[in-house]
Amino acid sequence: MNILMISSTLLYPSRKGGTQGRTFNLLKYLSKNHDITVIVQPNADVSDEEVEKLGKFVSELVVFTRPRDAKTGIIAKLQRLAQFLQQEMQNWIDRAVKSQKFSIITSEHSVNEIYIRPQGQLTYPDTLIVGGNPSLEVQELTKLKGVIVTGRVPSMTTYLHQATMAVIPLRTGFEIHSKTLESMAAGVLVVASDRGLEGLTVVGNNVPLAALSANSIEQYYTAISSFFESAELREKLSRNARKLIEDNYTWQQAVAKYEQVLTADIC
Is the dihedral of CA 138, 161, 193, 12 positive or negative? Predict the structure, then answer.
Protein backbone atom coordinates (compact mmCIF):
# COMPACT_ATOMS: atom_id res chain seq x y z
CA MET A 1 0.00 0.00 0.00
CA ASN A 2 1.20 3.53 -0.81
CA ILE A 3 0.98 5.85 2.20
CA LEU A 4 1.53 9.62 2.25
CA MET A 5 2.45 11.15 5.62
CA ILE A 6 2.18 14.94 5.96
CA SER A 7 4.15 16.38 8.87
CA SER A 8 4.82 19.90 10.12
CA THR A 9 8.20 18.84 11.50
CA LEU A 10 11.01 16.43 10.69
CA LEU A 11 10.37 13.05 12.29
CA TYR A 12 14.03 12.26 12.97
CA PRO A 13 15.69 11.85 15.41
CA SER A 14 12.79 10.35 17.35
CA ARG A 15 14.07 11.75 20.68
CA LYS A 16 13.13 15.31 19.65
CA GLY A 17 9.63 15.04 21.08
CA GLY A 18 6.55 12.93 21.68
CA THR A 19 5.07 13.46 18.22
CA GLN A 20 8.37 12.72 16.47
CA GLY A 21 8.97 9.61 18.54
CA ARG A 22 5.51 8.19 18.03
CA THR A 23 5.31 8.95 14.32
CA PHE A 24 8.87 7.88 13.52
CA ASN A 25 8.39 4.48 15.12
CA LEU A 26 5.06 3.98 13.35
CA LEU A 27 6.76 4.95 10.09
CA LYS A 28 9.75 2.67 10.69
CA TYR A 29 7.62 -0.43 11.23
CA LEU A 30 5.06 0.38 8.53
CA SER A 31 7.83 0.83 5.96
CA LYS A 32 8.60 -2.89 6.20
CA ASN A 33 5.31 -3.72 4.48
CA HIS A 34 4.30 -0.51 2.69
CA ASP A 35 5.73 2.22 0.45
CA ILE A 36 5.76 5.47 2.42
CA THR A 37 6.19 9.01 1.13
CA VAL A 38 6.76 11.71 3.76
CA ILE A 39 6.31 15.43 3.14
CA VAL A 40 7.83 17.63 5.86
CA GLN A 41 8.57 21.21 6.90
CA PRO A 42 11.67 20.96 9.10
CA ASN A 43 12.81 23.74 11.43
CA ALA A 44 15.90 25.77 10.61
CA ASP A 45 17.94 23.83 13.20
CA VAL A 46 17.48 20.52 11.35
CA SER A 47 20.71 19.32 9.76
CA ASP A 48 21.16 17.83 6.30
CA GLU A 49 22.39 14.67 8.01
CA GLU A 50 19.11 14.28 9.91
CA VAL A 51 17.13 14.75 6.70
CA GLU A 52 19.30 12.17 4.96
CA LYS A 53 18.84 9.63 7.76
CA LEU A 54 15.05 9.99 7.71
CA GLY A 55 15.14 9.43 3.95
CA LYS A 56 16.58 5.95 4.51
CA PHE A 57 13.34 4.84 6.15
CA VAL A 58 10.94 5.96 3.39
CA SER A 59 10.39 5.45 -0.31
CA GLU A 60 10.35 9.21 -0.95
CA LEU A 61 11.05 12.22 1.27
CA VAL A 62 9.75 15.62 0.11
CA VAL A 63 11.12 18.62 2.03
CA PHE A 64 9.65 22.14 2.06
CA THR A 65 11.35 25.07 3.75
CA ARG A 66 9.36 26.44 6.68
CA PRO A 67 9.02 30.25 6.84
CA ARG A 68 10.78 31.75 9.84
CA ASP A 69 8.66 32.27 12.95
CA ALA A 70 7.83 35.88 13.67
CA LYS A 71 7.09 36.60 17.32
CA THR A 72 6.34 34.63 20.45
CA GLY A 73 3.03 34.16 22.21
CA ILE A 74 -0.45 33.44 20.89
CA ILE A 75 -0.07 35.61 17.78
CA ALA A 76 3.01 33.68 16.76
CA LYS A 77 1.20 30.37 17.27
CA LEU A 78 -1.58 31.51 14.94
CA GLN A 79 1.01 32.62 12.39
CA ARG A 80 2.75 29.25 12.58
CA LEU A 81 -0.51 27.41 11.95
CA ALA A 82 -0.81 29.33 8.70
CA GLN A 83 2.83 28.65 7.82
CA PHE A 84 2.32 24.90 8.12
CA LEU A 85 0.15 25.03 5.01
CA GLN A 86 2.08 27.22 2.58
CA GLN A 87 0.80 27.33 -0.99
CA GLU A 88 3.70 25.43 -2.56
CA MET A 89 3.19 22.56 -0.15
CA GLN A 90 -0.58 22.65 -0.72
CA ASN A 91 -0.06 22.47 -4.49
CA TRP A 92 2.15 19.39 -4.07
CA ILE A 93 -0.50 17.70 -1.91
CA ASP A 94 -3.25 18.59 -4.41
CA ARG A 95 -1.28 16.99 -7.24
CA ALA A 96 -0.64 13.89 -5.10
CA VAL A 97 -4.36 13.51 -4.36
CA LYS A 98 -5.27 14.01 -8.02
CA SER A 99 -2.76 11.38 -9.13
CA GLN A 100 -4.54 8.78 -6.96
CA LYS A 101 -1.12 7.30 -6.22
CA PHE A 102 -1.73 7.04 -2.48
CA SER A 103 -4.14 4.69 -0.77
CA ILE A 104 -3.90 6.54 2.56
CA ILE A 105 -2.93 10.10 3.53
CA THR A 106 -2.15 10.87 7.18
CA SER A 107 -1.52 14.22 8.84
CA GLU A 108 0.90 14.32 11.78
CA HIS A 109 0.53 17.24 14.18
CA SER A 110 2.99 19.75 15.56
CA VAL A 111 4.18 19.34 19.11
CA ASN A 112 2.91 21.18 22.18
CA GLU A 113 5.67 20.77 24.77
CA ILE A 114 4.47 20.55 28.35
CA TYR A 115 7.06 21.11 31.05
CA ILE A 116 7.00 19.85 34.59
CA ARG A 117 6.68 22.60 37.20
CA PRO A 118 7.14 21.33 40.75
CA GLN A 119 4.73 23.05 43.11
CA GLY A 120 6.53 22.39 46.36
CA GLN A 121 9.87 21.28 47.76
CA LEU A 122 10.24 17.80 49.20
CA THR A 123 13.04 16.72 51.51
CA TYR A 124 13.88 13.78 49.28
CA PRO A 125 16.66 13.08 46.73
CA ASP A 126 17.35 15.41 43.82
CA THR A 127 14.54 16.36 41.46
CA LEU A 128 15.65 16.35 37.82
CA ILE A 129 13.67 18.15 35.13
CA VAL A 130 14.85 16.59 31.89
CA GLY A 131 14.09 17.71 28.34
CA GLY A 132 14.86 20.20 25.62
CA ASN A 133 14.22 23.94 25.65
CA PRO A 134 13.13 24.48 29.28
CA SER A 135 11.33 27.79 29.73
CA LEU A 136 12.85 30.60 31.78
CA GLU A 137 10.39 29.81 34.57
CA VAL A 138 11.61 26.22 34.66
CA GLN A 139 15.26 27.29 34.57
CA GLU A 140 14.61 29.51 37.58
CA LEU A 141 13.71 26.39 39.58
CA THR A 142 17.42 25.54 39.81
CA LYS A 143 17.56 28.13 42.59
CA LEU A 144 15.67 25.64 44.77
CA LYS A 145 17.74 23.14 46.71
CA GLY A 146 17.89 19.75 45.04
CA VAL A 147 16.36 20.83 41.71
CA ILE A 148 18.40 20.20 38.56
CA VAL A 149 17.29 21.31 35.07
CA THR A 150 19.26 19.43 32.42
CA GLY A 151 17.95 20.87 29.16
CA ARG A 152 18.25 18.61 26.12
CA VAL A 153 20.01 15.31 26.78
CA PRO A 154 21.42 12.73 24.32
CA SER A 155 19.29 9.93 25.74
CA MET A 156 16.19 10.13 27.94
CA THR A 157 16.57 6.41 28.60
CA THR A 158 19.80 7.02 30.52
CA TYR A 159 18.02 9.33 32.95
CA LEU A 160 15.01 7.04 33.31
CA HIS A 161 17.22 4.12 34.28
CA GLN A 162 18.83 6.29 36.97
CA ALA A 163 15.50 7.54 38.32
CA THR A 164 13.60 6.32 41.35
CA MET A 165 10.31 7.70 40.08
CA ALA A 166 8.82 9.94 37.41
CA VAL A 167 6.39 12.68 38.42
CA ILE A 168 4.13 13.71 35.53
CA PRO A 169 1.82 16.56 36.65
CA LEU A 170 0.22 17.34 33.29
CA ARG A 171 -2.74 19.72 33.40
CA THR A 172 -3.62 19.81 29.71
CA GLY A 173 -3.58 17.53 26.70
CA PHE A 174 -5.47 14.45 25.62
CA GLU A 175 -4.31 11.01 24.44
CA ILE A 176 -1.78 8.63 25.92
CA HIS A 177 1.46 10.49 26.64
CA SER A 178 4.79 9.03 25.56
CA LYS A 179 6.56 10.31 28.68
CA THR A 180 4.27 8.12 30.81
CA LEU A 181 4.75 5.06 28.61
CA GLU A 182 8.53 5.52 28.50
CA SER A 183 8.75 5.76 32.28
CA MET A 184 6.64 2.66 32.83
CA ALA A 185 8.54 0.73 30.16
CA ALA A 186 11.75 1.45 32.07
CA GLY A 187 10.15 0.12 35.25
CA VAL A 188 10.25 3.59 36.80
CA LEU A 189 7.63 4.38 39.43
CA VAL A 190 5.03 6.83 38.11
CA VAL A 191 3.04 9.47 39.97
CA ALA A 192 0.87 11.35 37.48
CA SER A 193 -2.21 13.48 37.09
CA ASP A 194 -5.34 12.14 35.41
CA ARG A 195 -4.09 13.85 32.23
CA GLY A 196 -0.72 12.12 32.57
CA LEU A 197 -2.48 8.75 32.85
CA GLU A 198 -4.98 9.49 30.07
CA GLY A 199 -5.98 6.33 28.21
CA LEU A 200 -4.17 3.96 30.59
CA THR A 201 -5.90 1.53 32.93
CA VAL A 202 -3.52 1.43 35.88
CA VAL A 203 -5.96 0.40 38.61
CA GLY A 204 -9.34 -1.31 38.85
CA ASN A 205 -11.05 -4.67 39.23
CA ASN A 206 -8.62 -7.42 38.19
CA VAL A 207 -6.11 -4.74 37.12
CA PRO A 208 -2.79 -4.76 39.01
CA LEU A 209 -1.90 -1.31 40.36
CA ALA A 210 0.71 0.12 37.95
CA ALA A 211 0.91 3.84 38.87
CA LEU A 212 -0.32 6.34 41.45
CA SER A 213 -2.68 9.18 40.53
CA ALA A 214 -2.44 12.70 42.01
CA ASN A 215 -4.17 15.96 41.10
CA SER A 216 -3.32 18.27 43.99
CA ILE A 217 -0.23 19.24 45.97
CA GLU A 218 -1.35 17.13 48.91
CA GLN A 219 -2.02 14.10 46.72
CA TYR A 220 1.40 14.36 45.06
CA TYR A 221 3.10 14.62 48.44
CA THR A 222 1.19 11.61 49.78
CA ALA A 223 1.83 9.48 46.69
CA ILE A 224 5.54 10.29 46.50
CA SER A 225 5.97 9.74 50.24
CA SER A 226 4.31 6.33 50.01
CA PHE A 227 6.92 5.18 47.51
CA PHE A 228 9.79 6.21 49.76
CA GLU A 229 8.18 4.56 52.77
CA SER A 230 7.43 1.15 51.24
CA ALA A 231 9.96 -1.00 49.40
CA GLU A 232 7.21 -3.55 48.76
CA LEU A 233 5.05 -0.92 47.01
CA ARG A 234 8.01 0.23 44.91
CA GLU A 235 8.82 -3.29 43.77
CA LYS A 236 5.19 -4.16 43.01
CA LEU A 237 4.40 -1.06 40.94
CA SER A 238 7.69 -1.19 39.05
CA ARG A 239 6.96 -4.78 38.03
CA ASN A 240 3.31 -4.09 37.19
CA ALA A 241 4.14 -0.99 35.13
CA ARG A 242 6.69 -2.83 33.01
CA LYS A 243 4.30 -5.74 32.43
CA LEU A 244 1.48 -3.36 31.42
CA ILE A 245 3.70 -1.95 28.65
CA GLU A 246 4.95 -5.35 27.50
CA ASP A 247 1.40 -6.71 27.28
CA ASN A 248 -0.27 -3.73 25.62
CA TYR A 249 1.98 -0.94 24.36
CA THR A 250 4.96 -2.18 22.37
CA TRP A 251 5.61 -0.53 19.00
CA GLN A 252 4.83 -3.79 17.24
CA GLN A 253 1.37 -3.87 18.86
CA ALA A 254 0.73 -0.19 18.14
CA VAL A 255 1.72 -0.54 14.49
CA ALA A 256 -0.44 -3.65 14.06
CA LYS A 257 -3.50 -1.71 15.27
CA TYR A 258 -2.57 1.35 13.18
CA GLU A 259 -2.12 -0.85 10.12
CA GLN A 260 -5.56 -2.38 10.66
CA VAL A 261 -7.09 1.11 10.55
CA LEU A 262 -5.16 2.06 7.40
CA THR A 263 -6.05 -1.13 5.53
CA ALA A 264 -9.69 -1.35 6.64
CA ASP A 265 -12.45 -0.82 4.09
CA ILE A 266 -13.92 2.64 4.57
CA CYS A 267 -17.56 3.12 3.57
Answer: positive
